[in-house]
Amino acid sequence: MLNRLLALRQSLRGLDLSGFLIPHADEHQCEYPPARARRLAWLTGFSGSAGLCAVTLDRGAIYVDGRYTLQVRHQVDVKNFEPLSLHDDKLADWLLAHLEKGGRVGYDPMLHTREWIEKLSGALAAGGIELLPVAGNPIDDLWRDRPEPSKNPVSSHALEFSGERSKHKRDRLWAELKADNLNAAVLTNLDSIAWLLNIRGGDVEHSPLVLAYLIVKSAGKAVFFVDEDKISDEVRDHLGRNVKIKPYAEFMSALKTLGRGGRRILVNPRHTPAAVTDALCRGGAFLVEKPDPCQLMKACKNETELSGARAAHIRDGVAMCKFLCWFDDNVSAGKIDELTATEKLYGFRKKQNYFRGLSFDTISGAGPNGAIVHYRSSPETNRKITGDMLYLLDSGAQYLDGTTDLTRTLAIGKPSEEQRDRYTRVLKGHIALAQARFPVGRTGAHLDTLARKSLWDVGLDYDHGTGHGVGSYLGVHEGPQSISKTGFEVALKPGMILSNEPGYYKSNEYGIRIENLMIVRPSHFEDEERPMNIFETITFVPLNVRLVNAHMMSSAEITWLNIYHAQVREKISPYLAGRELEWLVQATQSITVL
Asked: For residues 502 and 424, is the Cβ–Cβ distance under 8 A?
């Protein structure tokens, strides 16, 4: 990595730059960029899904969020890249402290939004430092074995899974645009494009997305910029004559005329690259900066998508229960490690109908590795799952009818009383959120505290959000909905799918997380004086009761746990037999407090 850093600094000198910014981002602001866009990982070794690196001619810094505070120190040479917090440490302060007045910091305008660049530029200008766009990313010239663009074909997403025709979605979108007196919308979010056109692809690892841009110009009509070699005749027929297909490379030139005459163009300020908004402005467009309407439409699933999600979670629950039975029967032999467990679970999942791959890299963390929130096992870090320890398994899959994500924490050997205490507090928070009834219009930020209270009672907490949105055979992390301390902007609405995943992590010892997915539904409690919403849990996999201290739980919490396990047994048992069915019955036995 040092040679790469030295080569980059030499390139910066040739460009007369004193610094450069390298985000974990591609031209579409993907959470998981395609392999050829992972410039941050190429330079630093950091593989997390949120990060930013700043390099000067003699220093470096890498910014990550609370999920990766441990991981970054494992993967990155901290002598060359100082680890800092994305939320608590300001990039402008670091650059101002390490650059002299007159410094010139470069950035790739395809990898940053104008909103972010304008904010940073203003902060740096106060200290006499200039922020400059660079035509052509210098890392791309240095990355000699950079992967080629994906050539995976585009497929249509059938109506039996989408529940709504693309034309109807486009008509709905145009109605919103017209109501705001807009002439066109530029979409760069890949999940918005996939949802709107009812297409799926294979250009992004673990997410069935297509690298593309879309311009919506009138009722039902759009221009689709994509590698045409990926488009079959079947997909062309699916898209219809109102979706004009053009080469991916022609997108930027199309922007030059789109805004001619001051046409009002919608762009999402938080996701649209600065290069795109700059091109529109140069072409005379009047930018209307608002959230991408597709994001909220997509988040509120229709009944077909919700039925698919429920069905996918039953099949996924069957695979998980088969795995957990195998795990319990074999772990005492001391021959299972993080990687073999990961492969075994994958084997059970891929036998399920409609399986299309994992929804993210499985987090298989034994003992201290479980304390690394987004840990990824490798041959170098792989641990045996043996002795007395906790094992954290966070995994999910992509099915044609739904996307899954769940976490279970398992006790290996004899758990300590501290571990049982922490697990039970996490479980109490999970139950509090699962049982929540809340007024229509409330956001995830209003609910986040419910999941943390039991931990807060004894001075504990966790550094990640409590819940994220989940797509319908799309991204496992979907916006705009969330359950977190910052999730104030978007109210939770019926049809949204969110995770419920409080946790606790003791550095270098163990990690605990319990995660199920939930659907937001209207409440119909007869005495309600105002409209309310509730959650419907759709993940059905037993929880590890060996870690539960029932004396810490209320009777209502114990009742919830027993009812949940009865539901798991009812829904999963028809698909198991023999030893696996016996295991499920035992794992879902009711607990009582004597």
From this structure: no
